[in-house]
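Exercise 7b. Backbone tokens:
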């Protein structure tokens, strides 16, 4: 495995962390958008997720969008487009199939991933949303101005896999996931939804590998989202 970091925009500290598998064939790619309320990114849903997807024959990319004093929702959205453009332009060197690149976002990163997957002419073959923030309920708390991404869904939105927990108190199911999946259903967008009775917000993979850097938070039942997701992803290979 090779790792390198590319600066996509110096003015707002946007970077792309590239986790490149040593392979002789082009692999599908996945762009990872960590959560964390636009504060420093945590390993739980960045590096450790990337390395886990790497073991499943994906080229993995973590997008470090603008955070802290440079946080800006619209700029963060634009950084996703920049990241996809970079990956597609360098697809040969990165050994990635430019026709099979997806996106996964957690929490606030899930809102960004959903927004990108709804854009016209986006390059996401699929979207995975983990306990996503969907509306503007947390804008004041986070200090940004976002949007209700459920209103962005169209018939062209990328096929979507969504997971979360019934006991999520930060981004409650009825306020976030439910209206988004309703919009997907009404627009006939293929999707799969898993709402677990255990676990919670910010659990990432839910296993011990992420629990080590996530206040020992693990849940074997919640962790089943990943193998379920891998099975769902087989349709795109």
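Sequence design result:
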């Amino acid at each position: 495995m090779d790792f390198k970091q590319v600066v996509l925009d110096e003015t707002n500290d946007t970077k792309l962390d590239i986790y490149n598998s040593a392979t002789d064939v082009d692999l599908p790619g996945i762009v990872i958008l960590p959560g964390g309320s636009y504060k420093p990114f945590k390993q739980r849903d960045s590096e450790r997720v990337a390395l886990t997807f790497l073991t499943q024959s994906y080229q993995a990319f973590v997008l470090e969008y603008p955070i802290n004093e440079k946080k800006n929702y619209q700029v963060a959205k634009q950084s996703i487009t920049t990241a996809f453009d970079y990956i597609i332009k360098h697809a040969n060197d990165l050994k990635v199939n430019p026709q099979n690149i997806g996106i996964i976002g957690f929490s606030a990163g899930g809102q960004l991933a959903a927004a990108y997957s709804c854009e016209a002419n986006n390059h996401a073959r699929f979207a995975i949303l983990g306990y996503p923030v969907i509306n503007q309920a947390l804008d004041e708390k986070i200090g940004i101005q976002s949007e209700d991404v459920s209103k962005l869904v169209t018939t062209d939105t990328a096929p979507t896999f969504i997971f979360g927990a019934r006991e999520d108190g930060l981004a409650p199911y009825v306020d976030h996931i439910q209206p988004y999946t309703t919009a997907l259903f009404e627009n006939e967008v293929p999707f799969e939804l898993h709402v677990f009775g255990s676990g919670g917000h910010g659990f990432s993979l839910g296993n011990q590998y992420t629990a080590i850097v996530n206040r020992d938070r693990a849940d074997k039942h919640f962790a089943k989202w990943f193998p379920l997701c891998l099975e769902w992803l087989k349709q795109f290979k």
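Instructor comment: The mean pLDDT is 97. Residues 96 and 196 are 33 Å apart (CA to CA).
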